[in-house]
Fold:
Amino acid sequence: MSSRLTGVGVGPGDPELVTVKGVNALRAAEVVVVPVLDTGERGRAEATVLHYVPAEKVVRVVFALNERTDRKRREAAWDAAGERVAGLLRERGSVAFATIGDPNVYSTFTYLAQTVGELVPGLRVETVPGITAMQDLAARSGAVLTEGTEPLTLVPVTAGSAVLKEALAGPGTVVAYKFGRQAGEVAAALRETGRLDDAVWGSALGLADESMRSAAEMDGTPLPYLSTLIAPPRRAGGRGGKL
Structure:
């Protein structure tokens, strides 16, 4: 029988936002791998998983999740993590990898699956979708992500504030991920494009240290790294105006 690696999206942090299918996949796997920083601190994926599976079933694997400058160190960490997961697959046959958000949206799972696929012949890779931070923030803030024919643009601000500014100059809603360290530049881009007043940001949604504010309150102070921003377009024409 072939080995199976399943990427399971466990949502943005609120344990109640894991889908039934996601919970079933976590419980069905022989082992559940969770990514951790080399500092060893418990991440959101691990904290969420422990609501649904016993701790003895969880294996913590170190990833260079916060490494952006040293490519060699980052790739060495990916290789080591891939070897560890490949070993678990050879021993147990079925491994679930828990990732915050969705496994197909800016997820470490993409790189892991690619690495492990080269190490384990005949590997079956599956994913279980998860609720994203932008969906959770939209629900909590009342922001409407799209109407009618509007596009939706998702930008990781780690790509630079210029990419965000270009998106804000276009139509439709713009969502920014991982913008906390560049909050000042993001606020300036929102102001320049006339999007500041209607935009909202949030972090740690559904958790004890949750923050959710109007973007107009940003004063340039760095925010949590995993902050999410929603900047809707100006909508006119009443109900169905964008149809």
About this structure: The CA atoms of residues 202 and 221 lie 14 Å apart. The radius of gyration is 19 Å. The chain has seven helices and ten strands. The first strand starts at residue 4 and ends at 9.
